# Entry
Amino acid sequence: MVSFFITHRYTQNIYNFFNDAFIEITPTEKFNDWTLTLFKRDIRTDKPFEAISYALVTGGEKNKGSLLNFKQPFTFGCTLDLSKTSAPLGKRLREGIELRINKENLQGGIKGHPLKIIFLDDNYTPRLAKQNVETFISQYHTSTIVCPLGTPTTEAYLPLAVEKKIAIIFPYTGALIFRKPTLSHVVNLRPSYAKEAQALITYAYTALQGRKFAIFYQDDSYGMGPLLAAREALKKYGISSWVEAPYLRNNPNIDEPAKKILNFNPDVILFFLQSDHQPHLFES
# Structure
């Protein structure tokens, strides 16, 4: 894989270069069938990568007009934050999904069926996330939700999966509430927050010799999972006193939890929250 990029904004302006692009070469048994695919996008917009496939030997564009031969598309829905506190993560997740789906469609889809995914913004708000899922069902006629982002948002429509009305595939969350054996319509990929919290504390205690722990966490189902696991892990190492500093989702004011942590004077701070609040804590 070959990539070309210029990251510095000043350099981009000098050379009038605003493309993020890379090339992927796909080998096959016969060299004449090798494919070169160009993925590109304009970084000044929120548009996804555009993929164009060429024959490596001849340079001719491949799959031109092949979309006309596709069968009925397989449609999926994805609800995620594209405008609030989790938007940077949501946008990267969307770009990655689109990139993979574009590649699959260039190769003919799944048994001739192209993949189509609908993204809807939920502002990292449970009520809007549930509305989005209802929109997927009623307007787009799909009951498969792929890679939704956020614990409290995904929890809002979990009852639909319990009732087997929808399938939630690879939710971008490690909360334990999505890992019950009875949830046959939820398929997980990433490890749980509990395992991650236990690993962090083990490392901090054994490698960093940490003994005074502060836990800065999001006060909802997203933060409670690792918090409960952290409590058990700390007790396992004989630590009986630590400080817990919660904050409210989508609330930029963290003065109170920052003051609580500062007064405790810890040597280890655990963050169970959205990443954009970490610099705010350090500034406070």
